[in-house]
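Notebook, bench 3.
Goal today: get a predicted structure for uracil phosphoribosyltransferase from Recurvomyces mirabilis so we can plan the truncation constructs. The sequence was checked against the plasmid map this morning, with no discrepancies at the termini. Length recorded as 193 residues. Pasting the sequence as submitted so the record is complete.
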Amino acid sequence: MIRDENTNRADFIFYSNRINRLLVEEALNHLPVLPHTITTPVGRSYAGVKFEGKICGVSIMRAGEAMEQALRECCRSVRIGKILIQRDEETSQPKLFYDKLPEDIKERWVLLLDPMLATGGSALMAVDVLRSRGVPEEHICFLNLIASPEGAANFAQKFPKVRIVTAFVDQGLNEKNYIVPGLGDFGDRFYTL
């Protein structure tokens, strides 16, 4: 549904949100836990697990903001940071314009949100921003709907400790570095079309 150019905006949003929720839930499964025992309402002990730290979502604006709702549905009162990186249409190189992150981000596990991983340029720059603020590479999990093999390889080469959780790995990139078969411009389809 989200790949079909004839899917209307309402359906695109609905199905994207469903996938985003699954991605967030899967990413949360990769965070560290500690043993934790509780007492059930019938007076019995239950040995389970409990998350070991604090989480923070960081969306790469604007398309990454579409993934924030799914994160909030799974983690009430989660802190959300923002990074604005745009790809130069001529050079395909990313450029950082803005970032606003929680002051204690270096003490958090970061879920980096951006629905598309094409060349990896924007996401790599976002990880550089996070690392410059003291976030350890192994405390970052990058969530996206569609990844290109080239982008995933670039990411793994530069940041091998960052975990990537994706829904689809597509065929590759075209001559303009767009993911194929892809789904078009995610942000345009989610917010404006």
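The radius of gyration is 18 Å. DSSP finds five helices and eleven strands in the chain.
Flagging this for group meeting.
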